[in-house]
Amino acid sequence: MFKFATLLALASLIPAFVEAATSPIYGQCGGTGWTGATTCATGSTCVYSNPYYSQCLPGAANPTTTTTTTTTRPTTTTTTTTPGGGTTTTTTSAPGTTSTPDAGNPFVGYQLYLSPYYAAEVQAAAGNITDATQKAKALSVANIPTFTWFDVIAKTSQLGTYLADASSKQKSSGQKYIVQIVVYDLPDRDCAAAASNGEFTIANNGLANYETYIDQLVAQIKQYPDVRVVAVIEPDSLANLVTNLSVAKCSNAQTAYKAGVTYAMQQLNKVGVYMYLDAGHAGWLGWPANLTPAAQLFASLYKSAGSPTFVRGLATNVANYNALTAATPDPITQGNSNYDESHYINALGPMLSSQGFPAHFIVDQGRAGVQNIRQQWGDWCNVAGAGFGTRPTTSTGNSLIDAIVWVKPGGECDGTSDTSAARYDYHCGLSDALQPAPEAGTWFQAYFAALVKNANPSL
Ligand SMILES: *[C@@H]1O[C@H](CO)[C@@H](O)[C@H](O)[C@H]1NC(C)=O
Ligand SMILES: *[C@@H]1O[C@H](CO)[C@@H](O)[C@H](O)[C@H]1NC(C)=O
């Protein structure tokens, strides 16, 4: 009895204590070495990002099991009497169906949804810039749409939050919206580098876990058939299968990567997601010797997946720094006639077409505003001197290119420069990489400030 009373007394103290130790929305709430609050402000949940970082994200906790909610599209059933007296029944989905993609460029006529997550990061970052001109420029970045990376399964429930928001904005404005996402959680991810190793391993049920991850994205998308979703599928993965099979982790991952990407294409196709498979960049698959094997790999995977109709093409230059059209070739590109993304795309496009793969592209220009800043073409980590680039647009000047997009959210770090960190990659310690740099995916304030300052066109 006494014990019970003590517990009650203690319990009454707890709410006050919890409230005091609550992290704000988008604040950190966990990770190695974190000693601050591990509970989140009302309306947000602590979401695991990686062993070093958990963050308070808006919305409820992620469903632990795949949601079984399904939204059935209205259908029309037509019964026709055939000459022989039998009947055939055709069931077609009502307008708004996602069973057949729109012909043409999926970006045209749509507004790009602004990720509230990135906008909040940018606003917080701008708050730390003292120079009034730079601060105003920094704030304007919050209005430029970027893709949202779903890099851990714990974040998948965020997609539903965004889709619900886009759906309501769409209803109130009459303007149609696209939510742009990056599907990025293959087992043994980032097989040729160290900074972005993922949460799933092939050895530990990784492919099945990946399928659950895809299923959770699909379950959310299914609930908002009115909102268009465009996805970049698995940055670096297939490009690594073209050029890096000599790396043991890549050759071991080959079967799982192919199975995972096939599953992603097939399932996302069912809910009408317009997909662009990642195709590296000019300095990777754009080398003449790599073009044919690349086209063959994309086409064979696509065909074996059943030629999913919502696969629209390829995404290039994701998180990279290449110009779409370089005024003059950067000296580091010497030896490659495809020295910028336009040359790469113009060379690859016809090869894809002849193999039966849809030759449409989107190109990341988010951090490509400044050229000739790298020592080697392969340098990819937090390259110093980079600036925000051409804004997202469908005016691309190239019929193969659907849109210039910002895939990499500028300011989020590519990888840590801490040589003792488990995910340290030497590229992040090179002399052309800005340092000190925090863990991949976390905010890198000095880098963001430089992207703002060096933006071209200027902000
Ligand atoms: C911004 O400033 C606040 C207050 O000085 C500080 O706690 C926070 O770490 C800073 N954030 C960044 C990203 O620099
Ligand atoms: C992966 O392939 C690229 C392009 O050929 C090459 O530059 C890079 O060094 C390779 N990575 C590893 C770890 O071998």
Describe the protein in words.
The chain is an alpha/beta fold and 459 residues long. Helix content is 32%, strand content 16%. Strands 8, 9, 10, 11, 12, 13, 14 and 15 form an eight-stranded parallel sheet that branches. A three-stranded antiparallel sheet has the order 2-5-4, with no helix packed on it. The chain starts with a helix and ends in a 6-residue tail after the last helix. Residues 1-19 and 62-97 have low confidence and may be disordered. The structure holds 2-acetamido-2-deoxy-beta-D-glucopyranose (2 copies). One 2-acetamido-2-deoxy-beta-D-glucopyranose (NAG) binds next to loops. Residues 21-57 form the CBM1 domain. Residues 63-102 are annotated as: Disordered. One of its GO terms (biological process) is cellulose catabolic process.
Key terms for this structure?
459 residues; alpha/beta; 8-stranded parallel sheet; 3-stranded antiparallel sheet; disordered N terminus; binds 2-acetamido-2-deoxy-beta-D-glucopyranose; carbohydrate metabolism; Beta_cellobiohydrolase_sf; signal
Question: How would the blueprint of this fold be written?
Answer:
Blueprint: H1 2-20, E1 22-23, E2 28-30, E3 39-40, E4 44-50, E5 53-58, E6 75-81, E7 87-93, E8 111-112, H2 116-126, H3 132-140, E9 148-150, H4 156-173, E10 177-183, H5 206-222, E11 228-233, H6 237-243, H7 248-270, E12 274-278, H8 288-304, E13 311-316, H9 341-355, E14 361-364, E15 401-405, H10 445-453
Parallel strand pairs: 1-3, 8-10, 9-10, 10-11, 11-12, 12-13, 13-14, 14-15
Antiparallel strand pairs: 2-5, 4-5, 6-7
